[in-house]
Every structure is written in structure tokens, then in C-alpha cells.
Specification:
With 189 residues, the protein is of the alpha+beta class. The chain is 28% helix and 31% strand. The chain has one domain (10-188): minor pseudopilin epsh domain (minor pseudopilin epsh fold), CATH 3.55.40.10.
């Protein structure tokens, strides 16, 4: 039996396999570095849209008004329910009057923006807010305050706008900063 017919690998074959594996690892890590930052902004948009949809659904299912609050100063949002923190239904709000249950309503789904995602602005009924805490309403009929939320991702320099339609409470997504054009008389002809 000759030495050539033995099973095994030569040193050259092993080095070639190691070099090929190293190249594959380098290419894969480069692709992940591009994918992961984009996924961070996509995850933030997805999480916020899920919060909007679930708040709308809860308002319909519970036949009560729910609110989604945006804290632009502290970069977070949460849902205010029509229930007391201690249980039971809170007293209903009367438009233009003080909330009889101020500070006593149950809050859920408190979420902070992270991974370089920043809440830039919230526009509610054509009024833009860039600081403070603002809220939008979701009614038992499924409608909501017309609003847009602009998110910015610093690592990728990407901006996304989430638009919530007033009559239906449904969501539309836009790349970049989106502002709905003003309605004119010609739109109805």
C-alpha cells in the first residue's frame, strides 16, 4: 500500500479550507453590520404601530376611550386606560373639564425608544409638538385623533413617519418626514 492512498488531509488542503471559512465569516459579519441598524428602526416602527393598533382594538372591545401618550422629552410612550389603578372603571372625562380621575388611571405598555431611535415630533390635528407630553384619543367606534409620529434613527440617518387616519384609526407608513397636503376645493370636483 502506498503512502498516497491513506485517508486524511494535507496541510495545504486544511489551510485552503481555513482561508475559505475566514472569508465567509468576514462577508457574513459585514452584511450583519448593515442589516442590524436598519432592523433597529424597523423594530421601533413595528412596536409603535402594534401599540397603536392594540390601543384602538382595546377601545373598540371595551367600548371606552383609550389614550396613547407620547413623552417627547423622555423618549417614550404608553397607553392610558379607562380603568383605575386600583381596579374598576374610572369616571368618564367630560370635554373641556378637569379629569376627575387625574393620576388615578391605569397605565400600560410603557415603552422607551432605544438603539439610537429618537421620537422627533408628533403632529396632532395639524399642530406639531417637539417637546412635552401629548396624547391622542381612540374612541369606542374605532376612530382616533388624526396624528403623525416622526421617528429618527441616528446610526443610519433614517427617518420614518407613522400616520394614523382619524376616521378609521388605521395606520400608514412613510419613509422620511411626511406631511399630508392640505385639502382644497379642487379635491372634491
Amino acid at each position: 500500500m502506498s503512502r498516497r492512498s491513506r485517508a486524511g488531509f494535507t496541510l495545504v488542503e486544511l489551510i485552503v479550507v481555513i482561508v475559505v471559512l475566514g472569508l465567509m465569516a468576514t462577508v457574513t459579519s459585514m452584511n450583519w453590520k448593515k442589516i442590524v441598524p436598519r432592523e433597529q428602526i424597523n423594530a421601533a416602527v413595528r412596536d409603535l404601530s402594534n401599540a397603536i393598533n392594540s390601543t384602538r382594538s382595546e377601545a373598540i372591545a371595551r367600548n371606552s376611550e383609550y389614550r396613547l401618550l407620547y413623552d417627547l422629552d423622555n423618549q417614550r410612550y404608553w397607553v392610558e386606560t379607562p380603568f383605575k389603578k386600583t381596579g374598576g372603571l374610572a369616571m368618564p372625562r367630560i370635554l373641556g373639564e378637569e379629569d376627575p380621575e387625574e393620576g388615578n388611571r391605569a397605565l400600560v405598555d410603557e415603552t422607551d425608544f432605544k438603539d439610537g431611535v429618537r421620537l422627533v415630533s408628533v403632529t396632532i390635528d395639524d399642530e406639531e409638538y417637539v417637546d412635552g407630553t401629548v396624547f391622542v384619543r381612540f374612541s369606542p367606534q374605532g376612530s382616533s385623533s388624526a396624528h403623525t409620529v416622526v421617528l429618527f434613527h441616528e446610526p443610519t440617518n433614517l427617518t420614518h413617519t407613522i400616520e394614523v387616519l382619524a376616521l378609521t384609526g388605521l395606520i400608514r407608513f412613510h419613509d422620511g418626514v411626511f406631511k399630508r397636503p392640505e385639502v382644497t376645493d379642487s379635491d372634491f370636483r
